[in-house]
Specification:
Rossmann fold, globular, 10-stranded mixed β-sheet, 303 residues
Length: 303
């Protein structure tokens, strides 16, 4: 029978999301892909340092346990790198004991189209155009901020993920009201629609997939812990909670911050990754936790 990824949570990562290739990338930007490829070849036996998404990948793969017949997760490299440089990616993964077997290397071309045959639930890349293309295709995706602080090692048996609400887990409906009418209009709108579930945002499929993984992977000793970290405050909190209830999904923590900076709260939660549609929130969070920008919703319309 042909191989299949059906039934697995599939995460696609660019090379720079998984590993710290920032020095090599500076060579690429200063010269060309030939110089980059030569440097990667010279460093073939030198494992790359872990990147922003390393902890997330490592922990998700731990859900597979020791039973090769029951794989629950898959991490795939999806990269603009050339195939030669891809050898170092696989060598580095092997060095750290990451069982990553699949990769697509496109040497400069956008790789997002391959997300569809991979049935990917998440794509993380440092390339904004690739992230936008993935989101337009319906795949949860975020632009990794390479300077983000690396994840804490305090929770080896938990995958911790924090999500913004509007334009990430939920649609940007309420955010549009806020932009058009200000905070008072937003609060009134959300109070009047408190019992009406918000439409799904781009990351609802990932949250659903994590929920399924939590139920499937109980015997592995790994667990999922999620948090909603939002600028909403009471009374607008109720609609967000009721929406998650309507989806039959529990989050483990909810932070209604009323516009307070999110970074220090995220530092205490210690996520393996945080997703937000506002670049300002991501910049604030990145000094504390791994963070990625979701280029979705009204805040990210190209003009």
């Amino acid at each position: 029978m042909p191989a299949s990824l059906d039934g697995r949570l599939v995460v696609a990562l660019s090379s720079r999301a998984l590993f710290d290739f920032e020095e090599e990338n500076r060579v690429f930007e200063a010269h060309d892909d030939r110089a980059y490829m030569q440097l990667q070849l010279q460093r073939l036996e030198q494992p790359a340092r872990p990147g922003v998404a390393f902890s997330l990948a490592h922990k998700l793969l731990a859900f597979n346990g020791d039973d090769p017949a029951r794989l629950l997760t898959e991490v795939v490299i999806l990269s603009r790198n050339d195939p030669v440089s891809g050898m170092r990616v696989f060598r580095s993964a092997q060095h750290y004991g990451l069982p990553i077997e699949r990769g697509v290397f496109t040497r400069g071309e956008s790789p997002w189209r391959y997300l569809r045959p991979l049935n990917a639930h998440l794509f993380l890349s440092t390339n904004e155009a690739d992230v936008r293309s993935a989101l337009e295709a319906g795949v949860p995706a975020a632009r990794v901020f390479p300077h983000s602080r690396r994840a804490s090692d305090a929770h080896p048996n938990e995958v911790r993920i924090a999500f913004d609400g509007d334009a990430v887990l939920f649609s940007d409906e309420a955010e549009r009201v806020f932009r058009d009418g200000g905070l008072d209009a937003f609060q009134l709108h959300e109070r009047e629609h408190a019992v009406t579930p918000l439409a799904a945002g781009p990351f609802k499929p990932l949250l659903m997939a994590l929920h399924r993984l939590q139920q499937q992977g109980e015997a592995t000793g790994m667990r999922i812990r999620t948090a909603l970290v939002t600028a909403r405050s009471a009374p607008a909190h109720e609609r967000a909670i009721r929406t998650l209830m309507d989806w039959h999904i529990d989050v483990d923590a909810a932070m209604f911050l009323g516009g307070l900076p999110k970074g220090e709260f995220l530092r205490e939660f210690e996520p393996d990754f945080f997703f937000d549609d506002q670049t300002g929130h991501i910049e604030n969070a990145a000094s504390h936790v791994p963070a990625g920008h979701v280029a979705a919703g009204v805040s990210n319309l190209l003009v």
